[in-house]
Amino acid sequence: MLFIRDDDLKLAFVTMLNKLIYSHKLVLRPYLKAIQENSSDENLHRIQHLEHLLEQNTEQRETLTKLIAQDYIDQILYNRENNALLSQADGFRADIEALRTNMTGDMSRVREAERLLHFTEKEHMLTAFDDILFARFVDHIDVYSRQKIGFVMKCGLTFQERLGD
What we know:
Elements: H1 6-69, H2 75-122, H3 131-137, E1 138-143, E2 148-153, E3 158-162
Antiparallel strand pairs: 1-2, 2-3
Helix pairs in contact: 1-2
């Protein structure tokens, strides 16, 4: 079984954070700006559109109920159309819930990106591994090979580093 030494992982983490400290203006600021702009506006408009469609769906079901009450349509047609509208409404509700969940995840990524940017703006180059920083910023590590790993950050970015030979 092959393994990766703990010291190599720690050194790669320090190297990656030092690169971010040096280049936070080029990497983290544009990323933060992009996820802030993209996350909320687009999803809010989509949710509003789906809620409008849900209202129209409710009105159509009310119209169907009036038509069957006045004997303009038969029971079979009513059931078929009503079931289709109920199914469509369930789909709209599921889409709205998925978008709201996505917005919550986006807000979490924004918050984590802000924390990382704040740290890199204030910090000087690191000389040693700090397990508190690792736990604060890294979600997990992807191992691509014995020579290459990726730090998957809580803000959603993945930074790849080469390991020492």
